Amino acid sequence: MRDMNAVAAIAGRDLLKFIRDPGRLVAAVVFPFAMIFLLGGTLQLNLGNAAGFNFIGFTFTGFLGMTLFQSTAQGLTSLMDDRHNDFAQELFVSPVSRYSIVFGKILGETAVAVAQVLPFVVFAVILRVPLTPTHIALLVPVALLSCFMGGAFGLLLLNTMSDSRASNQIFNFVFLPQYFLAGLIAPITHLPWYLAALSLISPMRYVIDLTRGVVFAGSAEYSRVVLAAPLTNVGVLVLMFAVFMIAGTTLFVRRETNR
Amino acid sequence: MTPAIEVRDLVKRYRKGTTNAVDGVTFDVEPGQFFALLGPNGAGKTTTIAILTTTLTPTSGTVRISGHDVLREASMVRNQVGIIFQNPSLDMNLTGEENVRIHAILYHLYPYRPLYRLMPGAYRHQLRELADVVGLGADVFKPVKRLSGGMQRKLEIIRGLMHHPRVLFLDEPTSGLDTVSRRNLWQYIGELRRRHDITICLTTHQLNEAEEADRVCILDHGHVVALGTPRDVKGQLVHDRLYLDADDRAALRRRLLEMKVSFNEEGAFVVDLDGLTAHQVIRAIDEPLTMLRTESPTLEDAYLRILAAGDA
């Protein structure tokens, strides 16, 4: 219970750093505008009728899930920055369990990711994506699960990195293919078997599909947009989170103390 | 009585290392003692401190802090120790106060509050008191990146002292501090020891700071090469010296040779008082002296002698 204050302090630190970073704040507004308005709008005008669903809604849900997942995962790499500027020493010599430190980081990056997607929701409402208060209420637990999944995934990746340069390379290598395998921009209802297999092991697929499952629930487009039932996606995400979290934390703690 | 620090046959070899960074180190520190760990760069001091503070696992050997094993009871150990790191370990994106606040919360001193003004009065009082002690004052509220290197060091010292640790590790604590801040820091640490019986484990290159230690341990290439009180370490290796000179230097030289004392001529005659007192030497000299001065060796003299012997 005593560690809860420490968890809050570690999480609060990440949120504070985000709020004080003008570059990240501007990006949080410009990025959704570019993705939903420009990309989603263009796709809707050119492919919307042929596809048989609203591409603005499709792009919105894709980038919403992707941002929650990827922002938290990438935020976890700040643990590596802490290691390099020696702030990690301050964390690791304190009487706080390693699990609490990791949980605090994930919680902090979750708060940052949620703050980053708020402009997405605003743009979506402006562009008449059919979002009801129920949708928004249901998106809250979906967002938390997506962020926790991203945090656990980022923690696992962190153990493969030695510095910021390696981090950029690994993130490009790991995330770029997932944009296509998870159906971020284009539907993936028809894939060759080898890409379908890769898609099935892509965590981002389940995050995005769960987001779409909530937003498109009850609409005529649901069957053309959503790949699996929301409960199936939740089950897969919970399982993946548990595996990544246990493996990631164990590896991280071992790596920090057994140099 | 359970030692505050107990180190037995400690060995550390880094995963990519070809030699042991720490190689069979053994020492004890009693509660309340001021212990200094000395040695040149690469001697193994910081590695030893990292193991003692649980941020690094040993390859072999045992380490206990206040009776708690650093491997099996790491959490208990972390509750007992504080450390002022050799390298800055501050978050540059936060203010000084925010860095201290995070530390205070990590050590379970105060509940988390997102703003300074919401923190308990006891925290705000303690922070201001410590900021005044090290001479940081209201600058503690500035962003860390706007503080000079010396001011950042002061901030780390405030942070390390917040939780009144039972064992305080000071890894080069005064590097980057001006003379006044250095003196204030040592005065405060001395007061802490008197009030709270804190054990201090210091690593430093400022050997005059270690002169006040109860015991010193000199490491070289991962080995203990000297261990004891500063007086013992100095006494084993270097002796008091007597500086003499006279107008009739030939007569004085003859007299010293007759006395069979060890001496050399470095401008004046320098007599090594090995087992003798200055009084015994002077009493045996009839020639009128033009110079008479005694000099006690410093820890630095002994340190340099030990390291030179190791290199030879």
Summarize the structure.
The complex is a heterodimer of chains A (259) and B (312). With 259 residues, chain A is mainly α.
Q: Uncertain runs of chain B with pLDDT below 50, 5 residues or more?
A: none
Mean pLDDT across every amino acid position of chain B: 88
Helicity of chain A, in percent?
over 70%
The H/E string of chain B reads EEEHEEHEHHHEHEHEEHEHEEHEH
Largest sheet of chain B: 6 strands, mixed
Which spans of chain A of ≥5 residues are poorly predicted at pLDDT below 50?
Answer: none
Shape of chain A: globular
Task: Give the helix/strand class of chain B.
Answer: alpha/beta
Strand fraction of chain A? under 5%
Strand content of chain B: 15-25%
Spatial strand sequence of the major β-sheet of chain B: 6-7-8-3-9-10
Secondary structure class of chain A reads mainly alpha
Proper CATH architecture of the largest domain in chain B = 3-Layer(aba) Sandwich
Name of the CATH superfamily of the largest domain in chain B:
P-loop containing nucleotide triphosphate hydrolases
Distance between the termini of chain B: 40 Å
The ordered string of helix (H) and strand (E) elements of chain A is HHHHHHHHHHHH
Task: Please specify the SSE layout and strand pairing.
The complex is a heterodimer of chains A (259) and B (312).
Chain A: H1 3-19, H2 22-51, H3 55-75, H4 78-84, H5 87-92, H6 98-126, H7 133-158, H8 164-181, H9 193-200, H10 203-215, H11 222-225, H12 230-257
Helix pairs in contact in A: 1-6, 2-3, 2-6, 3-6, 3-7, 3-10, 6-7, 7-10, 7-12, 10-12
Chain B: E1 5-12, E2 22-29, E3 34-38, H1 45-52, E4 60-65, E5 68-69, H2 74-80, E6 81-84, H3 96-106, H4 121-133, H5 149-161, E7 167-171, H6 179-196, E8 199-203, H7 207-210, E9 215-220, E10 223-228, H8 230-237, E11 241-246, H9 249-259, E12 263-266, E13 268-272, H10 278-283, E14 289-295, H11 299-311
